Amino acid sequence: MAAQRTAGGGGTGPVNGKGVLLAAALCAVILTVTGVLVAVLPEPEQEGHRLPALARSHGIDLGVAVAVDPLDRDRRYRGLVEDHYTSVTAENTMKWEHVQPERGEYDWSGPDAVVDFAADNGLGVRGHTMLWHNQQPAWLAEGDWDAEELSAVVHEHVTTVMERYRGRIGAWDVINEPLEDGGPQMRRNLWYEVLGPDYIARTLYSAHAADPDAALYINEFGIESAGPKADALYDLVAGLVERGVPVHGVGFQSHFVHGNVPDDLAEQMRRYTDLGLEVAVSELDVRVDAPVTDEDLREQRQEYHDVLAACLEVEGCVNVTVWGVTDAHSWIPEWFPGTDAALPFDTAYRPKPALSGMVDALSRRGRRPGPARGARPRPPGAAP
Ligand code: G3I
């Protein structure tokens, strides 16, 4: 049997002809030409177009972090999102410094753009993020707060934002990175210093009251593998569940280093699903030391595959989100100089082997009966 690739190329443009491309890519097309079977294999980007249908067939969302500016101006960027993903997370624009830059003055332009884009394209939205020690506006970070006033400010912010997007944002990272970078101690952030450790439960109650249907997450990094920080977050979350605090999910950020992707991610996730929570891979990337070689990218393909496979192993893992659309938009080169190439599309918007790795993982047989998209299991005893 002769195999040939379809002609044509690097286009990753908008959704025109999406149905045709999808159909072409669903499987190798077998043509009969004068009695000879010819398998026409899908182009990598066409293969990537299978991702939304594949993700949905497993009952999970495959998401991507988006920035407002390229979403607005860059047709190819938009096309990559529309063609390959089923949910979006706002990479920055829903953070406190952007949403409430001055006290009492909300800027909805960025969040609205993301939520409207998602609605226009049938994508889910993960809200990111309410309480975080980074990207706070100066009035908040530098304020001279007592507990009563800060508590009121938090309640108002959470309530205002969540009520505005009620019914349009399915899950929120309400608490982001509550543990110290190296763990296992609770992070001494503004909230902890002024309100004490119970700031977490109180904020979750505010969030639940504002949108009772949203899945409320605690989102953390460095918990993807066994260790003191993973245990500390587990103890924190298990304590909240035991008290009946409305927490519904744990986000495993998953900012991985090539060659060091943990092999016990599924095991760590299961600890939470055993509590009745859902879990998500919320900020996936796999950074590679420069100069990046073809071999690195082949290995990275397997690493992306393995992360998707870990999620599929765990009933209750509902979302895998990659942290940026292309390597040109990734936070990695700025924050980790000397590393690069962390995402499934390169700086020229071309698909990398990592994209095929995700397709492979999602193409496997024996699909689990995962929760339907939007299903939000509640922990036992959570407030109604
Ligand atoms: O706000 C300025 C803007 O005024 C200026 O014009 C622009 C010029 O470059 O920079 C803007 O700030 C950038 C900001 O993102 C945009 O809101 C910062 O330089 C940049 O460092 C900042 O980085 C973001 C980072 O969070 C901040 O901590 C990354 O894009 C974003 O990917 C990253 O995301 C976090 C998650 O929210 C939580 N988990 C960790 C993850 C990586 O740090």
TrEMBL record:
Entry-linked InterPro entries: GH, GH10, GH10_AS, GH10_dom
GO biological process: xylan catabolic process
Region (Disordered): 360-384
Spans through the membrane: 20-41
Assigned EC number: 3.2.1.8
Active-site residues annotated for this sequence: E283
Listed SUPFAM superfamilies: (Trans)glycosidases
Catalytic activity: Endohydrolysis of (1->4)-beta-D-xylosidic linkages in xylans
Protein family membership: Belongs to the glycosyl hydrolase 10 (cellulase F) family.
Name assigned to this protein: Beta-xylanase
UniProt source species: Nocardiopsis flavescens
